[in-house]
């Protein structure tokens, strides 16, 4: 059943209002694609400034798509009207059918957020985490049994407006009917779902993180330059970006948090020396060289 597609399911009969927590690159991207596909979305973040910056990113991305695809003048605005926002954590999810958290990659922050929302969310509301590295079981650890059974990962990729994949990660005992509904929802927002058991990094990051680490070690050993590694992987392996360009885009802090979490406690990966951040990486993080978003990572940005 997990591998089947379910063309008979119309996700809009079950999911109409979505609450998304976190207005960063991933959260705002998820808000955008959901609103673009006709869903009512509420965006929550701690400060109005964070929300404003997320909405600004959505408007910019939608305007780019509108220009490219020749949409009518009111297209961007018609999508933005489906998006509301608030800094009131509980109010955001009170009428939601699906909650997606895309807050900072910190286990206790995610656990506390979801358990707080659990007190007001509808019993039928589905909880999803966009975690890049943590286990769904750990993120859901403070939820009651009923909610835990309705909790999965919906893992999107950066830039969300462009990347077609969504990983759906499930725990032992997740209801196949819930997975069928979420697969239909992912298809409805114009993405392609893949399923994965609840395992560190799911599919993509489990392969991508060691690849990025090997690239960094090549450079740290002095075997090749950053530019040559990026050129090699683009022209020799057909990747759209080299590993250093990609790490700059996804954020060095994201990779750093994943490595620390895996080195610290991930099943089968803890204490694996590959995942111990190198002194060079620690230095970049403490200097604030986080990639594109901070203006400097492996490369310098205007
Ligand atoms: N919104 C709307 N459209 C966008 C966009 C955005 N934010 N960003 C790019 N686009 C569009 C452009 O308009 C362009 O459209 P066109 O081809 O019709 O003109 C198209 O996407 C390609 O963009 P560009 O021409 O600017 O640049 P590229 O051709 O270099 O593509 C890229 C950019 C899509 C980012 C491509 O380089 C790529 O696929 N890179 C790899 C991305 C990747 O691997 N992401 C996964 C990261 S891992 C992750 O997210 C997991 C997390 O847990 C860490």
Protein model, in words:
The chain is an alpha/beta fold. The protein has two domains: 187 residues, NAD(P)-binding Rossmann-like Domain (Rossmann fold), CATH 3.40.50; 90 residues, Orthogonal Bundle (N-(1-d-carboxylethyl)-l-norvaline Dehydrogenase, domain 2). It has an eight-stranded mixed beta sheet, with helices on both faces. The chain is globular and about 55 Å long. The relative contact order is 0.10. The model has no long low-confidence stretch (mean pLDDT 96). It binds 3-hydroxybutanoyl-coenzyme A. The site of 3-hydroxybutanoyl-coenzyme A has 18 residues, from helix 2, helix 9 and helix 11.
Largest sheet: 8 strands, mixed
C-alpha Rg, in Å? Answer: 19 Å
Q: Given the helix and strand composition, which structural class is it?
A: alpha/beta
- Strands ordered across the widest β-sheet: 3-2-1-4-5-6-7-8
H-E string: EHEHHEHEHEHHEEHEHHHHH
- CATH class (first level) name of the largest domain: Alpha Beta
Total of domains:
2
Shape: globular
Architecture of the largest domain in CATH?
3-Layer(aba) Sandwich
> How many DSSP helices?
13
Counted beta strands: 8
Binned, the helix content reads 40-55%
- Reported by name, the CATH topology of the largest domain is Rossmann fold
The chain-level mean pLDDT equals: 96
